């Protein structure tokens, strides 16, 4: 499975099966992505990232990776975990990944509804 940023300067390849496909509605993800953050994660050893990723320390808990050239939001990584999340929207082709849940919906924007029937995990 492969993905890249909008301009192609940053690319990545995922080995193995990604886990935890979700849509995050927290205010940080909404600001970073411009709407919602859909991602899945793999062990850090199962993703190879190429190109000039810029990391932003978004909080004391996590950092966010993006392309410094085109600004595409690509990665999210908790400081205390050995996994890394990647943007589902940045995948190059069909992945067969299916969303499993919505998270942090208490922070969701008031301009949309969640109506796809997926589980809502944790209201906050």
From TrEMBL:
Keywords: Lyase, Metal-binding, Zinc. Residues 1-113 form the CENP-V/GFA domain. InterPro entries: CENP-V/GFA, Mss4-like_sf. GO terms for molecular function: carbon-sulfur lyase activity; metal ion binding. The keyword Cell cycle does not apply. The keyword Lyase applies. PANTHER family: CENP-V_GFA DOMAIN-CONTAINING PROTEIN-RELATED, GFA DOMAIN-CONTAINING PROTEIN. Belongs to the Gfa family. This is Glutathione-dependent formaldehyde-activating enzyme. It comes from Roseovarius albus. The lineage of its organism: Bacteria, Pseudomonadati, Pseudomonadota, Alphaproteobacteria, Rhodobacterales.
